What we know:
Helix content: 25-40%
Mean pLDDT: 86
Order of helices and strands: HEHHEEHEEHEHHHEHEHEEHHHHEEHEEH
Structural class: alpha/beta
Number of domains: 2
Shape: globular
Low-confidence stretches: 1-19
CATH architecture of the largest domain: 3-Layer(aba) Sandwich
Radius of gyration: 23 Å
Strand order of the largest sheet: 6-7-8-3-9-10
Distance between the termini: 46 Å
CATH topology of the largest domain: Rossmann fold
Amino acid sequence: MPSSSDTSPRASSRTSKLAKTYKLECRSLWKIFGEDAEAAAQKIDPNNTDHDRIINDVHDHGGIVGASDVNFTVAPGELFVIMGLSGSGKSTVLRSIAQLHRPSIGQVFLDGEDLTAMSEAELMEIRRRKIGMVFQNFGLVPHFTALQNIAFPLKMRGEAAASRHQKAEEMLKLVGLEGRGDAYPHELSGGQQQRVGIARSLAVDPEVWLLDEPFSALDPLIRRQLQDELLELQSRLKKSIVFITHDFAEAVKLADTIAIMRDGKIIQKGTAAELLLHPVDDYVRAFVEDVPRLQVLTLADIMTPATRKPSKALKMAASTPLETAMLALTGGEDTIAVMADDRLLGKVSRQDIINAVEMVS
């Protein structure tokens, strides 16, 4: 990895004109672990299109692949979900974005600046002011109260005691722990400790949130509440979020874009509808097979273009769930005219809905 004194072209020119159009960009990101990870990483040829051969070369030299040629962008205000089975590399990617794992190869841009070219001191400042992080192990300070833990990053930023106390109280209430500010971590349940970690992340008002399964240990009711709170906050604040989960239902509820990983590599990314309707392989298909398509998919997801309203057609909004549309087709109509206000967008037949639910292409 380059040091702060690196004079390579990448280090000397941190900004990318392409990256400036995104809040975040991961470009050809690899992370190799192992006793001789650096030597193993040297076996990676980014121009080699034989991915399996690259992986075998890395393994032959004692390397363990944590992330493999990961490429994606996150637009301002986008909620980008990464999901996969345990060991698929999703948490490695998240830590590489924050530079807690320095990538072996590749670049990570934030607001057009190459984080991989920054010194540790520069990265510390970025993390304090621009990035909020919540990982599965929140690392709460055991001799701090809940309120002190939440206020700690604000103290590190130099904020006044009264200001950080008020903000910490607001965050404590947000995650449903009002009145527990004086409790120490050992006096809180595992789920409550997680919520303190979430509140601590929100307290710094980050531009970017990196969230690693933050709701996974919470009971279903609290989990749904926090999902709703996240969506409500996102609707107002429009932050850029990278959210890790293994739960496709959670991904569908939260995500603008979903990326599914396997063995360190992104297998497919797209909207929930794109993954449901066009899974690229059996691995992706297994993730989406239990999703209630009638409830998740909308008319806009399956419509075909139309310039004239079909005869004997119902008029329905493009955002209408397929379940609602199917129930409406109980009369003599067999087709729906898909509308946006008074503008015709397309049409959907009863058979189109059946095909979508049964995964008929």
